[in-house]
Automatic annotation (TrEMBL):
<feature type="repeat" description="WD">
    <location>
        <begin position="233"/>
        <end position="272"/>
    </location>
</feature>
<feature type="repeat" description="WD">
    <location>
        <begin position="11"/>
        <end position="43"/>
    </location>
</feature>
<dbReference type="InterPro" id="IPR015943">
    <property type="entry name" value="WD40/YVTN_repeat-like_dom_sf"/>
</dbReference>
<feature type="repeat" description="WD">
    <location>
        <begin position="167"/>
        <end position="190"/>
    </location>
</feature>
<feature type="repeat" description="WD">
    <location>
        <begin position="191"/>
        <end position="232"/>
    </location>
</feature>
<feature type="repeat" description="WD">
    <location>
        <begin position="93"/>
        <end position="132"/>
    </location>
</feature>
<dbReference type="Pfam" id="PF00400">
    <property type="entry name" value="WD40"/>
</dbReference>
<dbReference type="InterPro" id="IPR020472">
    <property type="entry name" value="WD40_PAC1"/>
</dbReference>
<feature type="repeat" description="WD">
    <location>
        <begin position="313"/>
        <end position="345"/>
    </location>
</feature>
<dbReference type="InterPro" id="IPR044715">
    <property type="entry name" value="WDR86-like"/>
</dbReference>
<protein>
    <submittedName>
        <fullName>WD repeat domain 86</fullName>
    </submittedName>
</protein>
<dbReference type="InterPro" id="IPR001680">
    <property type="entry name" value="WD40_rpt"/>
</dbReference>
<dbReference type="InterPro" id="IPR036322">
    <property type="entry name" value="WD40_repeat_dom_sf"/>
</dbReference>
<keyword id="KW-0677">Repeat</keyword>
<keyword id="KW-0853">WD repeat</keyword>
<dbReference type="InterPro" id="IPR019775">
    <property type="entry name" value="WD40_repeat_CS"/>
</dbReference>
Length: 379
């Protein structure tokens, strides 16, 4: 049984639930997007609020933070770009006709997915729509982006698409995943197989693989060049809500109150993390520890290898929607409107010690079996 933890700090500035939490690439700032229609910028150095972005006419569904700019999308059908220093709204991207529920920033592109059944591509700097991706029969819920040069040999690329090699992947409540050429808006692949809404996507471009999680209780692996379905992971008893890929280990969080760890190369399920009393809404791997957030308002830390629950973080009143980790601090954002900060130095230190003991023990067993003095270091 894990030990309970108390928060180092509780940030309660929002007047509504926090729907998303984003960490800047340099780790200096955090951005929260809320049901109160505003976003707030936090410093990871002093945990203080240093920016309050106001202007949306409805709740913020999702947010994304770069080092110099913040992006928010809203139920008011728009996306906004903000200056992180001045708090000024730099751009408003208009065009969607329903709730914008996801955004993704890649290079000079801003991508968005909406309940209007479309995804769109915008120029980050010019406040202009570049492309519209139309073809889904229902809401676009999740996005991923890659460049064809990361996955295709030059002779495999279609001639007309060699100028712009960017591709967008969309998952929808119409049960399909679609891959689109960004330059033309043309659908390159439609991946068929799911029988429920596609809630999450994760991409492994170097290995040409895409992972999709669905309300049909399955995770599916696809070859993103051929569109071939490679594997189906079937052991969950509820919708797949979130995915994380680390060192060819796939972690899946589900409405069945568990997280499972799978070996991507074989499809074998090697661990199940239990103890949640509600759906697993978010997860993050850090230094051999799997951190989860749940609808039961608790965050948890598990030893990723053994599956043992090491700590429970209690204090939130409603579902934890998102977690981030920086400098051995755990940040949890909840529908109760608070951002809570937890010190995880002790658990990280203890986990490293346990990992060393585990490796030493296994190394000794291998020595005995082999009759030699080789040691084995496990991932």
């Amino acid at each position: 049984m894990g030990n309970s933890g108390s928060a180092v700090k509780v940030c309660a500035d929002h007047q509504g639930g926090i729907n998303w939490l984003s960490l800047s690439p340099d780790g200096q700032r955090l951005l929260t997007g809320s049901e109160d229609g505003t976003a707030r910028l936090w410093s990871t150095a002093d945990s203080q609020c240093h920016g309050h972005f106001q202007g949306h006419e409805s709740y913020i569904t999702f947010c994304h933070l770069e080092n110099e700019a913040a992006f928010t999308c809203s139920a008011d059908h728009t996306i906004r770009k903000w200056d992180v220093v001045t708090g000024q709204c730099l751009a408003i991207y208009r065009g969607h006709t329903s709730i914008v529920n996801r955004i993704l920033v890649a290079k000079d592109y801003l991508f968005s997915g909406s309940y209007d059944r479309t995804a769109r591509c915008w120029s980050v700097d010019k406040e202009k729509q570049i492309q519209e991706f139309r073809g889904h029969r229902n809401c676009v819920l999740t996005l991923a982006h890659y460049s064809s040069k990361d996955v295709l040999e030059e002779e495999e690329e279609e001639e007309e698409e060699k100028v712009s090699r960017d591709l967008l992947v969309t998952g929808s409540t119409d049960c399909t995943v679609k891959v689109w050429w960004v330059s033309s808006g043309r659908c390159y692949q439609t991946l068929l197989g799911h029988t429920g809404a596609v809630l999450c996507l994760i991409l492994d471009a170097p290995n040409r693989e895409l992972f999709s999680g669905s309300t049909d209780y399955t995770i599916r692996t696809w070859n993103i060049v051929t569109g071939e379905q490679l594997k189906v992971f079937k052991e969950h008893q509820g919708s797949i809500i979130c995915l994380e890929l680390v060192n060819r280990h796939l972690y899946s969080g589900s409405a069945d109150r568990t997280v499972k760890c799978w070996l991507v190369d074989t499809g074998e399920r090697i661990q199940t993390y239990k103890a949640h009393k509600h759906s697993v809404s978010t997860l993050k791997y850090h230094a051999g520890i799997l951190f989860t957030g749940s609808g039961d308002a608790c965050a948890r830390a598990f030893n990723s290898r053994s599956g043992v629950l090491q700590k429970i973080f209690r204090g939130h009143k409603f579902i934890i929607n998102c977690i981030q980790i920086h400098n051995e601090l755990l940040y949890t954002a909840s529908h109760d409107g608070t951002l809570r900060i937890w010190d995880i130095r002790g658990i990280c230190k203890r986990n490293k010690r346990l990992s060393r003991l585990f490796n030493n023990k296994v190394g000794c067993m291998v020595q005995q079996e082999n009759g030699n003095h080789e040691t084995v270091e496990l991932m």
